[in-house]
Amino acid sequence: MKKFYITTAIYYVNAPPHMGHAYEEILADVLARWHRLRDEYVFFLTGTDDNAQKNEEAAKRARKDVKDFVDENSEKFKELCKKLNISYNNFIRTSESKHKRAARGIFELAYENGDIYKGKYKGLYCQGCEAFYTEKELVNGKCPEHNTEPILLEEESYFFKLSKYKNKIISLVESKDFIIPKEKKNEILSRLKDEELNDLSVSRINKEWGIKTPIDNNHVIYVWFDALINYLSGIDYPDGQKYKEYWPADIHLIGKGINWFHSVIWPAMLISAKIKTPKTILVHGYLTVNGQKIGKSLGNVIEPNYFIDNYGVDSLRYYLIREIPFGQDGDVNEEVLKSRINNELANELGNLVSRIIALVGKNFKGKLNSSEIDKKLSSKLDLDKINNYIDKFELHNAISEIFRFIAECNKYVNEEKPWEKSGKELEKILYNLLESLRIISILISPFMPETSDKINRQLSVKKGLLKDCKFGLIKSYKISKGGILFKKIE
Fold first, then answer.
1. 71: burial class by Cβ within 10 Å (0-12, 13-18, 19+)?
2. pLDDT in tens, 357-406
3. Stretch (H or E) spanning 353
4. Cβ proximity of 314 and 441 under 8 Å
């Protein structure tokens, strides 16, 4: 069986989650669920970055014990995943002992390979990113991510010989599909080729919070060196069965602001430790409000629970995937969400389901045997096209193509006029429509799992796989009426 290992970034727990986190989780979940529909052996990892210095600073501001503060906020990310119906296999926290062991182990391997040395660091440091910037990288003297002026920091540090791996990283980045989309690949390549690649400061001195380096107890491991290792510790590196089965990762799904860490620093760390590099760094855009990136430090956070509580989780999942082409930024707009619920979810999908269930109930008392397959309808399903869109990460086009088939089903109802038919002719029309609903429920399950389950219950069928998306599989239906799938928003 083919394996598929997908990860999200792990999130700072200096504040509760926002819509940007929800978006990344939904994207990853759709991909994980789709690969499960292909009957692949899937592992989906998400979690929180507990060791960041900004978590410690936020806890101090909140006048809370750092561990209690981090535990409390990490739980909020877990709760959001539950509300969003995220089907992760493991929720890793970097404060777990297995992660600490893995981080220290990789640090030690790099040290033993002669890739870590002691020195002094002086540079412009953004506390929000927990990263150093060159003057060239700043925008009007400010961090491009947080729009804040960096501080000048000078301290003793251990360094990782990032510069040693420059040519290997360039070759890797140039290889097909390592960074998707292409423009994100080109950004990294031009930076690698145009600028000197400096060695990376990988420790912080005299910090209480964090993982002590294995070579010097006065230093903790720099958060980015530590955090990236979650992709290994989350599958029980170095000796666990999951690590042997799943590594290398098929997809690291990340926001564009952390592309450099994943496409340059992480592969260099892995090459130094003689571990295989991931297959694809998949970079999504940001959600924006009035064109500005959503961020805790920017103070324009949108609360995902507001949308879930008011419009339902599947409506939110559908809206974010359908509205925003992968890799592009997308503006969150409540009016557009309402419009999509009313027109596509309620009118097109919800109405189709309720009409067919009602017709079968009225004419056949809810029981219908298999009939001849109508090519007029079955030929409208293009499964290869949908699969192809998924493989190109054009999720908005994949869901759009599924809804094109839903529109064809509605057209078929209107053209065949089942309310005017009877006997075998009516049986054939309704059987083909029930089979269409069963197939639709499979296809929408990665995007709207709750809605898919509701349709399955009304059809009295079990959840299917992609191989079941063909007409004529069910020999007899026994349907049961359910509530409406989507309420219209007044």
1. middle
2. 999 999 999 999 999 999 999 999 999 999 999 999 999 999 999 999 99
3. helix 351-364
4. no
Based on DSSP, count helices (H) and strands (E) in the chain, helices before strands: 20, 18
Q: What is the pLDDT of residue 297?
A: 65
* Cis peptide, bond prior to residue 248, ω within 30 of zero: yes
Q: How far is CA 201 from CA 115, 162, 275, 304, in A?
A: 12, 10, 21, 36
Q: What are the tokens at 396? A: 């908005």
Q: Given this model, what pLDDT does residue 206 score?
A: 86
User: What pTM value is reported for the model?
Assistant: 0.94
C-beta separation of 281 from 178 below 8 A: yes
Question: For 335, how many CA atoms within 13 A lie in the half-sphere containing its CB?
Answer: 0
Neighbouring residues of 195: CB distance < 8 A, sequence distance ≥ 6: 134, 136
Confidence of residue 75 (pLDDT cuts 50, 70, 90): very high
Nearest to 233 by CA among 246, 216, 250: 246
Q: Tell me what pLDDT residue 55 has.
A: 87
Containing 4, the helix (H) or strand (E) segment is strand 3-7
Measuring CA to CA, which residue among 269, 266, 273, 265 is closest to residue 238?
273
Rounded to whole angstroms, the Cα distance separating 293 from 314 reads 24
Listed in sequence order, the residues at least 6 apart from 112 whose beta carbon sits closer than 8 Å to its beta carbon are none
Q: Are strands 131-133 and 116-126 parallel, antiparallel or unpaired?
A: antiparallel
Contacts of 148 (CB under 8 A, 6+ apart): 126, 127, 128, 142, 297
Structure confidence at residue 481 (pLDDT) = 87
SS3 186: helix
Residue 225, amino acid: F
Structure tokens that stand for 252 in this block: 């690291």
Q: Residues 428-441: pLDDT tens digits?
A: 999 999 999 999 99
Strands annotated E in 140-234: 151-160, 179-180, 200-201, 203-205, 219-221
Query: Checking DSSP bridges between strand 280-284 and strand 251-255, what pairing results, if any?
Result: parallel
Catalytic residue set: 18, 21, 126, 129, 143, 146, 293, 296
Among residues 444, 433, 445, the alpha carbon closest in space to that of 474 is found at 433
Q: Is 344 within 8 Å of 403 (Cβ atoms)?
A: yes
d(CA 404, CA 426): 24
d(CA 250, CA 178): 10
List of E strands, 75-222: 90-93, 116-126, 131-133, 151-160, 179-180, 200-201, 203-205, 219-221
Positive or negative, the CA dihedral 187, 192, 194, 197 is: positive
